[in-house]
Amino acid sequence: MKHLASKIQPPLAIGVDVGGTKVAAGFVDSQGRISGRVRFPTDKSSPKATLDCIAHAVEAVIDRHLASREEIQGVGLGVPGLVDPERGIGIAAVNIGWENVPVKTEMEIRLGLPCFVENDVKAAALGEARYGAGRGRQNLIYLSIGTGIAAGILIGGKIYHGPHGMAGEIGHAVVDPKGPQCKCGARGCLEAIASGPAIAVRAKEKLLAEQGMGGMVLPTLTHPVLYREGNLSAETVFKAAYDKDELAIETLAEVSEYLAFAIQFLALAYDPETIILSGGVAQGGDLLLDLIRSPLTRQADDSWVLGKVYHPEFVQLSALGKDIAVLGAAALVQIYS
Ligand SMILES: [Zn+2]
């Protein structure tokens, strides 16, 4: 850690990833090197407690790095849910219980440093453009596929919000009107079909159907990886697919068709240079990427319209892994201060 710390150079930004389960933070320099990482469980007992918890994480980063406050440009906060970045307000975030929380003002009082607030996925799009697979790109889409699905849209180097701040919330676009119930109230949302939990449900339904049972799934030797870990998760399905389990591959191929629809719409709506996939489901790696690229390549071959936008490298996986959240938050400081 000391070695890493000596490599990063001022001016430094502090990037903070505020999640439903943890607050992660670290120093980021202009080259995207991270140092002084910390991670705390999110205190969700009240909005004030969550803000205190974030401030505590930032102070811990500063203490760990022994940085002077003059070296610090500011603090960027990537927060879940609907955000007003201009006024620095967390308008609505169900998983941390925020409603119209004046995040920027409250954090600046606590820290005495300039603070910048943005929706986490939108901030990550900036992080990719600055440090990741989209380095140097002005027009890109960052598609986060995990427990939820959302896109960060960068147009001309700027995050596009839309008048309601809802631009990119494609997880709740209905892609199958007869599909499964979504927690937003609608039926057949992309998120209800292609999120991590939805992948696990789909695989489980296939297992039950295969066994002709309505109730319990019994261990068999047919799908060893799918059973080994007890509760099915998207990760288990990926592992099984890498082990060439047909049911797992079929599950992912079906889900990938829907993700390919979403990517096609995004591609034709915004004409980006690249679309970068990230989030828990994107941990499916090259196998998932191939399954998503395959219908897109087919469609681009059939249609000159998509063919105009699409090329083999158009859809990529993020190379920044879990660092993207902290890097994206830090990019807010580097771009807006
Ligand atoms: Zn929905």
Structure description:
42% of the residues lie in helices and 21% in strands. By secondary structure, it is an alpha/beta fold. Strand 10 (149-155) and strand 11 (158-159) form a beta hairpin. Helix 6 packs across helix 8 (234-242) and helix 9 crosses helix 10. It is globular, with a radius of gyration of 21 Å. Residues 1-5 and 217-221 have low confidence and may be disordered. Bound molecules: zinc ion. Zinc ion is lined by residues 172, 182, 184, 186, 189, 191-192.
Please state the overall shape, judged from the principal axes of the Cα atoms. Answer: globular
Following the backbone from N to C, one meets helices and strands in this order, namely HEEEHEEEEHEHEEEHHHHHEHHEH
Global mean pLDDT: 91
Number of strands: 13
Over the alpha carbons, how many angstroms does the gyration radius reach?
21 Å
* Alpha plus pi helix count: 12
Strand proportion: 15-25%
End-to-end C-alpha gap: 28 Å
- Trace the largest sheet across and list its strands: 3-2-1-4-8
Structural class based on helices, strands and sheet pairing: alpha/beta
